[in-house]
Specification:
By secondary structure, this protein is mainly α. Strands 1-3-2 form a three-stranded antiparallel β-sheet, with helices on one face. Strand 2 and strand 3 form a beta hairpin. The longest helix has 18 residues. The mean pLDDT is 83.
Length: 162
């Protein structure tokens, strides 16, 4: 597709429910303004398929952003910032339980194969795998919260900012 004519198009005709679902998905990904919708078909300029993989990935990343494990990991930052600003003076059992759940999820997600596969691709001086291994959930009760904040959460934030 290196030399596409301006009017090169591909037509997708409605057919079985499976093909129709795929066509609907394609329209959602590209956007209605990038296709021509006809009575029983859609027409898509071939130029819309240049770098389609990026459009495809970005569509799903945006659609499912709130459900992603990465979003869940980042969501706790606001809670930790609030606790830090209060110097943990209002830290309750409920907050502690939330922190425990966060650290459990963080360790589970961060040590999963899908996350481990990405670590070598990110240039960072932070040893994220070492930080994740240092999480000792059963010993959390004995640890000082400021140590957790300084060691783990700052390290994670630094790693994610790289």
């Amino acid at each position: 597709m290196s030399e596409l004519a301006e009017n090169d198009i591909i037509e997708f005709r409605l057919n079985s429910w499976l093909e129709n679902a795929a066509i609907c998905g394609l329209v959602n990904i590209l956007g209605e303004d990038h296709v021509t919708i006809k009575n029983q078909s859609i027409e898509v300029p071939l130029s819309e398929f240049v770098n389609f993989e990026e459009v495809y990935f970005n569509y799903f990343a945006k659609q499912y952003e709130k459900l992603s494990s990465f979003t869940k990991i980042l969501a706790y930052e606001a809670e930790m910032t609030r606790q830090q600003q209060d110097n943990f003076s209002h830290f309750t059992r409920k907050d502690y339980d939330r922190l425990q759940k966060y650290l459990t999820d963080l360790k589970r997600y961060g040590t999963s194969n899908s996350y481990k596969a990405v670590y070598p691709l990110i240039e960072s001086s932070v040893d994220i795998e070492g930080l994740l291994k240092s999480i000792k959930l059963d010993k959390l009760k004995k640890m000082n919260l400021s140590k957790i904040e300084n060691k783990l959460l700052k390290g994670l934030k630094s790693y994610m900012n790289n």
